[in-house]
Structures are given as C-alpha cells and as structure tokens.
Amino acid sequence: MPHTSSRFAIFLSPLLLLLTRTTLASILDRIATCSPGSTPHQCGSQVGLQMKTQINHYVNTNDSVSKLRDFIETDFGSTLLSQYLDLHTSTFPHYISEISGLSTSSNTPFNLLFAINIQSELLLHLDNDYELTGCSDYHVRNLWSHNEDGPPSSDTYMVKTDQYIAFTYPGQLSGWAWSLNRHGICQSINALTSYNGEIGIGVNFLARSLLDASSLDEAISLTKNINNGGGQHFNLGQFQNPSIYSIETSSLTPTSVLNISKKTHFFHANIYQHNDANPIKGDVISSIHRLSRATTHFTQSENPPTSVSDLLNIMSDQSDPFNYYIYRGNNNVDHDVTFTTTIFDLKNGMVSVWDERTVEGVEARVVYGVKNGEIVVLDNVDERNFTSDKGVGFEMLTLPIPNYVYLGMGGVMVVMCFLSKCKFTRKRNGEKGYELIT
C-alpha cells in the first residue's frame, strides 16, 4: 500500500523489529467479514466492531494520525475537511455511509476517520513536502507480483465481503492495497505524490470504487473520469483476460493508462513513470534503488524471469548495497517494512499471498480464487513453478524526463539520479554495478 511517511521516522531496534515481524505473521488470519447483502453502513459497522482494537490502537498511537487530528482542529483544517466532506458525500455517499458505520461501531469520531481516509490529500495542504511511500510491482506478461509496504504496524487486517477480499489499513476503506473482487478483477497500488492545492477526490475513495467494478473497462473508466485530489498508481488485471493495465492518476495531469501485458517485463515503484508531466516527488531514492535491483535480476540472469519462483526471488531481494531493499525491513535509510508479497496469476485465476519473505521453498500462506462469483480459498495449490506466457522484447521502465537516461531494447539500462549523486548501469550478463558519483 501506499502509505505515508515522515522524514524523521524513528528507526526501530532490532529486537522491536523482530517482535513486530512476529506479530505481522498473523495478518492474513485477521479477517473482518461482512454478512452477504449488507448495506455499506452495515458492512462498515461489522468491520468496525470486529477490528475495534486495531482501529483504536492505530488512531491513538500513529504519529501521522496525531498530526492529522491536530490539523483538522485548526480553522484552516476544519474548513478544508468540511469542503472535502461535501465533495465526497455528493460523489460517493455510499462510502461515506460505510465510514459512518465504521466510526459508530469502533467508537472513533467520524471526522477523524474521514480525515484518515483523505490523509495524504489533507496533509499535503499542511506540508507541500509531505511524501507518500510504499509498494513495488513487477510484471511478466500475465503474471505480476506485489509487495505491500508501509510503516511497521500490527494493526492491518483483511476484509472479506460477498464482493471482494482486500488487505486493509485500520480505519480506512478497503481498496488502497491489494485486492480481488468477485468478478476476478485484481488490484494493487503503488503510492505516488501529487498536489495541486485544490480540493479533489481522495485516492482512498477512488481505490474503493474499483472494488465494485464488474469489468476492466469499468474500472479503467472510473480512474479516468474523476476529479483527483492526489495521485496513485493502479495495477489492474482480470482473470482469464490477457490485458494488464498500469494506470497513473494525478491531480496535475490526465490519467495515463498503459496496457503493459504487451511488454515482457515492467516494474513500478513510487515515482511517476509514464511521462514527464508530473514532478519528481515522493519515495524517489528508494524507488530508483528498487528499480535498479529489479533490472539487475533481468540483465544478470541467464534466462529472464518468467516463473512465479522467479518473481518471488525478485520480490524478496535485499541485496541493494545502500540498504534500499525491494523486500523492505525498516533499516537506517528506509523505515518501511513489507507486510505481504502477492502473486496475481491471471491465466490460472489465482491470487497467492505470502506473509513472510519469499525465500527458497516458502509456500504461500493462502491462495484465493473465484468460483461461480464467490471468492474462495484454493487448497493444495503450489504455483511456484507456474510460468508466464512467453514474449519477446524488454522494457523495465521508461522515464522520459530530462534528469534520467533510459536505454531500453537489448537489455541495457541506465538511470541517472535526479540529484546527480548516483548512477546505475546494468548490462545483460555483465558485471557492471553501482557507481557512486560524489
């Protein structure tokens, strides 16, 4: 998920990190369910009641929520919140009702929960340098992998309704993370940072609306026909459909939609990658390092990654010499952690999830599928040797902005840091690695 981050995040001690990791192992077992046919308010109430402990702990201990609470109590913050509420009530009244139910049953003030659901948009009004961080995706045609990243926390949970199952952050609408709905639509998110100073629809609400889509066309249309208050990257696909879409939304530019299933390889992190129309903001340095490691897996392997096992190897990577890992671990330079790794297998209709680092031999904790319009757990499935459809060509990333250089087809990759402090060079089967420019 897309998560928010402070530049002054506190580095957890190794012991505390170990304890956090131990707690995280139960995330996929912590499931809030909504009764079939529940209204949005009823579903919110059921989730709030079942996850009251997690929601209350989050709102009472999270630094960003504390900053948010203080902000909405100011005259400026209160006025902004009211304007956002009017817009979202007129656009997505059913999701406002869902938050209302969540608020009532968890005994959390509605205004605070609504503010949490537009947290990035609100805090960017307070601080233009506020950054969103989290999540990586690697695509190989009809397979894609996703690392769900965020600040260390044990308060996340799953939400399962008769419409979808989704990794969910406490007090927030589902959708702003990885998910699968009853129509076989798969979704994952990469945080992006976009701010134009205006009031617009929050990324949380847009992401939630995609869970209700019955087709890829409908989901794509939702991302294109909305007044965005922020920005986000959506990875979208559907079971038995050969197309996968990379969608970048922004408050500054029109939504950009790419069909990436025609590309052999594609990696996305937390910077805008489709064009140079958006500023370079957000989790930039970490994104470049993760990109470089993903590219290395392509260029220095005898055979390009094509199997689920190959993707798991990439998503578990912790080999960056500067400690900006693809599988994140809260260290001295990168304070996020990876909660889960998910493989979306569109051809075989499976979503496999790991809640620990996917080193050799680790089996998925759970595998989801859809049967007769119902989301089910698939038993006795081990898809680690499944492979993607074969393709030709190579495109890991395009960054047509002046501060980056990209040399694509043929397996040569050069990325220049926008701060001109580092250079990454990768050649297929070559030995060239990092060069630090001082």
From TrEMBL:
Residues 144-352 form the Peptidase C45 hydrolase domain. The chain crosses the membrane at residues 404-422. The keyword rRNA-binding does not apply. InterPro entries: C45_proenzyme-like, Peptidase_C45, Peptidase_C45_hydrolase. It comes from the Eukaryota. Residues 1-25 form the signal peptide. Keywords: Membrane, Signal, Transmembrane, Transmembrane helix. This is Peptidase C45 hydrolase domain-containing protein. It comes from Triparma laevis f. longispina. The lineage of its organism: Eukaryota, Sar, Stramenopiles, Ochrophyta, Bolidophyceae.
